[in-house]
Structure prediction request, 428 residues.
Amino acid sequence: MLTYLDTYGSKVQVIAHGTDLINRMQRRQIDSTVLLDLSGLSEFNFVQNDNGIIRIGALTTIHDLVSSSALDSRYDVFRDVAAKFGGPAIVNMATVGGNVCAASSSEDLIPVLLVLNAKVKVRSKQGDRVMRLDEFLKGKRQTALLPNEIMIEIMFEDLGSQSACAFEKIGMRNSLIIAFLNCAIYLTLNKRSKLIDEVRIAFNRTSSKIPARATKTESVLTGKYLSPELVEGAISSLKSELQLTSDFRVSGEYRREVAPVIFRRALVKCAERLGEKSIV
Amino acid sequence: MNGKDHALLVESHERLLDVLRDRLELKGTKEGCSTGDCGICAILMDGKLVNSCLILAIQARNKNITTIEAVGTAENLHPLQRQFINSNACQCGFCTPAMILASKNLLDHNPNPTEEDIKEAIRGILCRCTGYHSIIKAVKAAALESKK
Prediction:
């Protein structure tokens, strides 16, 4: 297969389970006339904790991701995503690799993987390459994947006992909907001092047209106690930092209104997951 | 396919939905939005609910597929079919095949579903008559009937 891609890659479109691609084919957004079906490659459907590195095969479906025994309750963030991802029929088919390679603001997993500092492993006949997810995502519907490569794996460091992650999404309905706006947060609290050791925040629908981190707001929070005053400070920082776009789904104005709401919800969820019930 | 093997030569771009309806004449599976938003075309593939509009026919090779045609018969209705009738859970009927397959899949795995379980199982299927209340009632009644 890799030899075939090495020769014909630029004319070939790989397909996993097609939940995104078949829509784009029907809208005539795909030029390739040749489809290479990866859906039967069961060796790329796995979730493992390899000595503190969580490795997820690119062909792992969202259903298999959330039902994996390798991810305990610290990874409820993926259950947050699956609950709002699409109906069961989509959750059963859509793959982690497909969601990432689709590379748009509509992909709910991308903000979560961004705040987990995920890396992407791709493979070609020449060998494997590993790169950071934020470097892999080049822009809307653009990735660093070369025509002769396929994505085989996503990996990130295990959360440990002092870190938590949460995801929030706002859409027209609670189910079966592409997000107006979503937000993922990763939070590490110092075990003794309870100061914020590290925080990462990502939103979709940013001006870069793909999900992106809110690094200025992250630095407002870092090294401080998670208090109501600090959250207010972070929210005013978010308001100036986030460049949220308008589109046919909803206006940028609406997005700016709801961004602090879902930010606060995700932050509270992170704190609760770390057993800090009354902080915010 | 519903317990029978079929050997078909399909086009590379043909969708499973079209093969079901046009080649195998299984018209019970309906076409709704064709974008994966409405869930009307749902079928069971290897025991999982999937949207047949988003699956290439070639990707269904060597899979066990169940469509509404394999659920009950006119003489011997499946408890879900009987309870959908009793609860008036079919209004226009267009979402009914998918609703019954999604509910059957739920009851096969979980014979005692809560209302939340039922809502979760059918949340991917839009009923444009908005008859969800009767559908949930029918699934509850079918679960009770199946236990007897």
User: Anything to note?
Assistant: Chain B has five helices and three strands.
